[in-house]
Specification:
The chain has helices at 41-47, 97-100, 150-153, 159-169, 185-196, 211-217, 228-232, 252-255, 280-283, 297-310, 324-332; strands spanning 2-7, 16-21, 29-38, 64-71, 83-86, 89-91, 111-112, 132-136, 141-142, 177-181, 200-205, 221-224, 238-243, 258-266, 288-291, 316-319, 339-343. It is of the alpha/beta class and 351 residues long. The two termini are 18 Å apart. The protein binds NADP nicotinamide-adenine-dinucleotide phosphate (NAP) and zinc ion.
């Protein structure tokens, strides 16, 4: 099947309309008519080959929601017409220790929704900036939010799970004071989720303009991280920091804010390394520096259900497919509150 998509033909080119093919659904496949796709900063890193190894044409997008349009003969869990989502993972080995534990995100053979090897044309996966996608049922998530919220559910498939998973892993909850650094797509979900889990949340931003808005997301305090006095006022007070910042920065400034035994988990994945941290900031208070990669399929479903039960969705700005290049420029300037979401029906009109 040929469908419309938006993608880049090289790292130094903007995204443009293109036709791609999707396989005919196999026995365990679900075909999805994509209604909306969120725009993650990873899409920008990947399209521009900032992490190296990008395969072209590159059709990004891993915050996919839509309606089942067809199912393979052996699919019993999904029916045409149902609302579903697909996140960052469309396949994995299905038999290693990580897959057995539902941690497909850590499988050595995890197949990403775009830029991973596949037998399908053109030899690597193509993501959600497209009209349809065909995915093995194991990697399809059920959306239980009302249909009217569908566009705002899309960012949960990456920004939601990438922040939910570390908050759960480090057992964030009542009695904890948690910092969320970088108030973009991931960070704004981190604030909403940590607050919903019962923690007291401090937002750290480089943008003075987000000071008021971050309070509305559930933060009890907002710190402009460029201001040393505001940073000093938080010294030794945080149990956990979720760092979503998409650019290299001084990690030591954040270690100083952790209590003894506190942890900072990095989820931001800048193109170039952070300056090396000072080890004394870790050893003197037994602090930990950690990382976390999206989340497994069962936990992604758990997160979607957690959010559906509490009415949690992302704060979004809808865009047409042909506005994607401008959206990237705005994200790089930090000019989005807080996630762009593509309306995929607008792909039909692109040429
Ligand atoms: P985003 O919406 O663009 O937000 C990133 C935020 O980082 C910005 O809003 C900004 O927040 C802060 N920032 C400070 N200085 C910056 C700079 N020089 N350049 C860019 N951002 C800067 O990005 P996102 O989609 O949330 O993604 C954040 C990072 O997480 C990206 O590196 C992405 O690739 C990565 N990621 C990782 C995973 C994972 O599994 N670990 C999953 C998804 C994404 P303030 O204005 O508040 O300072
Ligand atoms: Zn993402």
């Amino acid at each position: 099947m040929t469908v419309k998509a938006y993608g880049a033909r090289a790292g130094d080119q903007t995204l443009e309309s293109m036709n791609i093919t999707r396989r005919t659904p196999g026995a365990h496949d679900v075909q999805i008519e994509i209604a909306y796709c969120g725009v993650c900063h990873s899409d920008i890193h990947q399209v521009r080959s900032e992490w190296a190894g990008t395969l072209y044409p590159c059709v990004p997008g891993h915050e996919i929601v839509g309606q089942v349009s067809a199912v393979g003969a052996h699919v019993s869990n999904f029916k045409p017409g149902e609302l579903v989502g697909v996140g960052c993972i469309v396949d994995s080995c299905q038999h290693c220790a990580d897959c057995d534990e539902g941690l497909e995100n850590y499988c050595d053979h995890m197949i990403g929704t775009y830029n991973s090897p596949t037998p399908d044309a053109p030899g690597h996966t193509l993501g959600g900036y497209s009209e349809q996608i065909v995915v093995h049922e194991r990697y399809v998530l059920r959306v239980r939010h009302p249909a009217a919220q569908l566009a705002a559910v899309a960012p949960l498939l990456c920004a939601g799970i990438t922040t939910y998973s570390p908050l759960r892993h480090w057992k964030v909850g009542p009695g904890h004071k948690v910092g969320v650094a970088g108030i973009g797509g991931l960070g704004h979900m981190g604030i909403k989720l940590a607050y919903a889990m019962g923690a007291q949340v401090v937002a750290f931003t480089t943008s003075e303009s987000k000071r008021k808005a971050a309070l509305a997301l559930g933060a009890s305090e907002v710190v402009v991280s460029r201001n040393p006095d505001e940073m000093a006022a938080q010294a030794m007070s945080l149990d956990f920091i979720l760092n979503t910042v998409a650019a290299p920065h001084d990690l030591d400034a954040f270690f100083a804010l952790l209590k003894r035994d506190g942890t900072m988990a990095l989820v931001g994945a800048p193109a170039t390394p952070h300056p090396s941290p000072n080890v004394f900031n870790l050893i003197t208070k037994r602090r930990s520096l950690a990382g976390s990669l999206i989340g497994g399929i069962p936990e992604t479903q758990e997160m979607l259900d957690f959010c559906a039960g509490r009415g949690i969705v992302a704060d979004i700005e809808l865009i047409r497919a042909d506005e994607i290049n401008e959206a990237y420029d705005r994200m790089i300037r930090g000019d989005v509150k807080y996630r762009f979401v593509m309306e995929n029906s607008t792909l039909a009109g692109t040429a």
